[in-house]
């Protein structure tokens, strides 16, 4: 990858890049749509990543090349703003803009981007680009911003330049990941611990529906509003409740259910999921992967029925593996409306499972099924 991106940089800008940064995509074991509700998540960085090669310039021009798309884009630092007709430059520009917003002088730069994180698969390909950009510029500008602050800058890039009001999970996992560990992150305090992820004979298998519904970002923002509405109704009676993290099922039954069944379902899922993650973490720490897997199925059912962010393709894949003894757990992963399911599968049975699920999925949905076996790797780093 290093040679490939260096060669592309040389071809585009007639120089070698000053720095190449790798920043990975992520999986999330459990704890979905909990991050922006101040709950917990359990993500990890994976062995698929975005790579950015950058050199600063003497003027204020930003020149970008997307190697995989064979596209280029240019803008000046003075004109930095979200661009409308293409999406990929926004992740880089939004990340660069965070430096100027902090009052840091940002010169122009040349960059080449490449990535093997599939786009729209729910593996946080955009967070990977944002984290790679922030990390590279922090290094080149010698701004010494710490990693957690860089995570927040990358998240703001997504809010301000991609228009998705995402939580902090994706950028946190990409930046902070550690090999063979999952991150138990408290999204309220941003305190975190690394939990060893020893599956002994099992692997994380990602099944990509190859569906990306255009609804994803608008529905995502709607879910956030529904959660905020539930908090408003509860906090009118319990002022100490600042987010769904502080709410109980009894509070929702009393103050949300009589008002709106949909808002109740959304908030009920979140309160259940925050508790379920704690239980699943205990299972993991005790080595009881089967019990953790059952909770993943329960998460899927909540996401599908109460939170309504699944789709028929994701439901098909989870239902297909549900009663197979070689699959300990499975669920849709990420924002929803397409992307991947995450499955905990007995290593020796992966080939047979793929041989069964692929033709069944392709026949039922008339779409190709992509399969990745993911391993857990380090977060953002210079290569
Ligand atoms: C997307 C967002 C994350 C998180 C997940 C759902 O990936 O970017 O912040 O909310 O959806 O858990």
Number of strands: 13
The CATH architecture term of the largest domain is 2-Layer Sandwich
Helix content: 40-55%
The profile of the biggest β sheet is: 6 strands, mixed
**CATH C-level name of the largest domain:** Alpha Beta
Structural class: alpha+beta
Name the shape in a single word.
globular
Give an overview in words.
- Helix content is 43%, strand content 23%.
- The chain is α+β, with helices and mostly antiparallel strands and 383 residues long.
- It folds into two domains: 2-198, 2-Layer Sandwich (Ribosomal Protein S5, domain 2), CATH 3.30.230.10; 202-374, GHMP kinase, C-terminal domain (Alpha-Beta Plaits, 2-Layer Sandwich), CATH 3.30.70.890.
- Strands 5-4-6-3-1-13 form a six-stranded mixed beta sheet, with helices on both faces.
- The radius of gyration is 21 Å and the shape is globular.
- The protein starts with a helix and ends with a strand.
- Alpha-D-galactopyranose binds at residues 32-33, 35-36, 124, 166-167, 169-170, 334-335.
- Alpha-D-galactopyranose binds next to α5.
Structural key phrases:
383 residues, alpha+beta, Ribosomal Protein S5, domain 2, Alpha-Beta Plaits, 2 domains, 6-stranded mixed beta sheet, 4-stranded antiparallel beta sheet, 11 helices, globular, binds alpha-D-galactopyranose
């Amino acid at each position: 990858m290093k040679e490939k991106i260096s060669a592309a940089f040389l071809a585009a800008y007639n120089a070698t890049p000053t720095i190449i940064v790798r920043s990975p995509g992520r999986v999330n074991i459990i704890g979905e749509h909990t991050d922006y509700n101040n709950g917990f998540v359990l993500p990890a960085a994976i062995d698929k990543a975005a790579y950015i090669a950058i050199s600063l310039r003497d003027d204020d021009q930003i020149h970008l090349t997307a190697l995989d798309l064979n596209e280029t884009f240019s803008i000046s630092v003075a004109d930095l703003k979200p661009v409308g007709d293409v999406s990929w430059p926004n992740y880089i520009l939004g990340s660069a803009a965070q430096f100027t917003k902090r009052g840091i002088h940002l010169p122009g730069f040349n960059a080449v981007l490449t990535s093997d994180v599939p786009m729209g698969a729910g593996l946080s390909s955009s967070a990977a680009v944002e984290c790679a950009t922030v990390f590279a510029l922090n290094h080149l500008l010698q701004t010494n911003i710490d990693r957690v602050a860089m995570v927040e800058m990358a998240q703001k890039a997504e809010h301000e330049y991609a228009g998705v009001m995402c939580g902090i999970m994706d950028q946190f996992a990409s930046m902070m990941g550690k090999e063979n560990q999952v991150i138990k992150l408290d999204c309220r305090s941003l305190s975190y611990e690394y939990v060893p992820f020893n599956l002994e004979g099992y692997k994380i298998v990602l099944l990509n529906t190859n569906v990306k519904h255009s609804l994803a970002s608008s529905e995502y923002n709607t879910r956030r509003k529904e959660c905020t509405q539930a908090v408003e109704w509860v906090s009118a009676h319990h002022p100490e409740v600042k987010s769904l993290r502080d709410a109980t099922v009894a509070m929702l039954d009393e103050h949300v259910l009589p008002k709106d069944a949909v808002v109740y379902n959304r908030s009920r899922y979140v309160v259940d999921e925050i508790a379920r993650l704690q239980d699943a973490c205990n299972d993991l720490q005790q080595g009881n992967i089967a019990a953790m897997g059952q909770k993943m199925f329960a998460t899927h059912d909540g996401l599908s029925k109460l939170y309504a962010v699944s789709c028929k393709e994701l439901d098909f894949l989870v239902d297909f593996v549900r009663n197979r003894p070689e699959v300990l757990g499975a669920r849709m992963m990420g924002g929803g409306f397409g992307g991947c399911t995450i499955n905990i599968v007995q290593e020796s049975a992966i080939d047979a499972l793929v041989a069964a699920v692929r033709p069944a999925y392709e026949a039922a949905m008339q779409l190709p099924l992509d399969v990745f076996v993911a391993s857990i790797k380090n977060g953002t780093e210079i290569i």
